[in-house]
Specification:
It contains 12 helices and 13 strands. By secondary structure, it is an alpha/beta fold. A hairpin with a 5-residue loop joins strand 12 and strand 13.
């Protein structure tokens, strides 16, 4: 491992996503966790005393001894990953960017800002150009999409490229960890499905339009696709499963669609970014796959697993997609964004 790893700060380091950042950054070849930030409840304590560590990997020793800082933008690390609660993320991330920090965020607050990339490195790396129009004088904000959006857009991108997309309908079955820790009460979730996740459906209906949009003359022009989403919370720990129906602009055979998925690759793979999956999409022929417990960790928990492609009497085709919500859908996805930024010279 290089001794010149870039020091980074993790905002919201004690939360579900923050812990995943710390796990993924442990032994990362380019970045190392130098500072951790959380709320006033945690600030001033050693990380090991402030955090309720819920991951199966051990808490990294060097991080466990760090003293948690508050959200004032005066860290020594110039790059910060944010897993802050959305009640506070907007203003804190902006304050960091204004002070010259590079902020890579999981929170919803700045995702739809016109000058902020909503980045999926396999899809829209060219949207990073829009950072140049941000008014932060040296700092910047880059965001990672909603955890359900990510799996779906990975599956949609090859279809958009080859056949064009007219309309999408999606019904999600989302894991409990998507609600943070402790999240939804056990008496609400055991033996149950909750057919509502606050604010989720509008995100799934709008974020893909920006991600699949075109960067032109300093602007991101949204893709014109009709999307309808229904979101459910199910009793699964990690991994969001989504049933997707698509209407394509051009006719396509089942074989052509599967081949588009299987052959899909991107600059994240070409650049050999450390957190990039070897294959962004895995297509399964078995009718009962993909499943959260079996496939959520495939390819470092960074790939989308797709299956059950069949013709649809209402749309053209329907299929199922699965992705890991705290890994690909949060910390892993944001880390991959930062890796792309480094590879392209946005992080020195
Ligand atoms: P979480 O487990 O509730 O963690 C929230 C973090 O924010 C904790 O570190 C908490 O610190 C900190 N925090 C809360 N209030 C604060 C305040 N007033 N000032 C400073 N820090 C404060 O939530 P999460 O699931 O990790 O989600 C974090 C963010 O990522 C959210 O915006 C969420 O929407 C987004 N996200 C989550 C997922 C997922 O799958 N979980 C996926 C994509 C995006 P203390 O411990 O000190 O309270």
């Amino acid at each position: 491992m290089s001794s010149n790893r870039i020091p980074v700060g993790v905002l919201g380091a004690t939360g579900s996503v923050g812990q995943k950042f710390i796990e993924l950054l442990n032994n990362h070849p380019w970045f190392r966790v130098a500072e951790v930030v959380a709320s006033e409840r945690s600030a001033g304590k050693k990380y090991k005393d402030a955090v309720n560590w819920i991951l199966s990997s051990p808490l990294p020793k060097d991080v466990s001894e760090l003293v948690v800082k508050d959200t004032e933008p005066n860290l020594e690390s110039k790059i910060v990953f944010s897993g802050l609660d959305s009640s506070i993320a907007g203003s804190v991330e902006e304050a960091f960017a204004k002070k010259g920090y590079t902020v890579v965020s999981n929170s919803k607050n700045h995702r739809m800002d016109k000058d902020v990339p909503l980045l999926v490195p396999e899809i829209n790396g060219e949207h990073l150009e829009i950072i140049k129009t941000q008014q932060f004088k040296g700092g910047c904000i880059v965001t990672n999409p909603n955890c359900s959006t990510i799996g779906m857009v990975l599956a949609l991108k090859p279809l958009q490229d080859k056949f064009g997309l007219e309309a999408v309908n999606v019904v999600t079955m989302q894991a409990l960890s998507g609600a943070g820790y402790p999240g939804v009460a056990s008496l609400d979730t055991i033996d149950n499905v909750i057919p509502f996740i606050s604010g989720e459906e509008p995100k799934l209906e709008t974020e893909p339009l920006k991600i699949l949009g075109t960067y032109k003359n300093g602007k991101i022009i949204d893709e014109q696709i009709k999307i309808s989403a229904q979101c459910n919370r199910v009793s699964v720990v990690d991994g969001h499963l989504e049933c997707v129906q698509v209407k394509l602009k051009k006719k396509a055979s089942k074989e052509e669609i599967i081949s588009a998925w299987r052959n899909f690759t991107s600059e994240a793979q070409e650049l050999n970014l450390p957190t990039a999956p070897i294959h962004p999409i895995y297509y399964f022929e078995e009718e009962k796959y993909p499943q959260p417990r079996i496939h959520r960790n495939i390819d470092k928990g960074m790939a989308a697993s797709v299956g059950r492609l069949r013709e649809d009497p209402l749309f053209d085709y329907k299929f199922v997609v699965l992705s890991h919500n705290t890994n690909r859908g949060a910390a892993g996805g944001a880390l991959l964004c930062a890796e792309l930024m480094k590879a392209k010279g946005y992080i020195k």
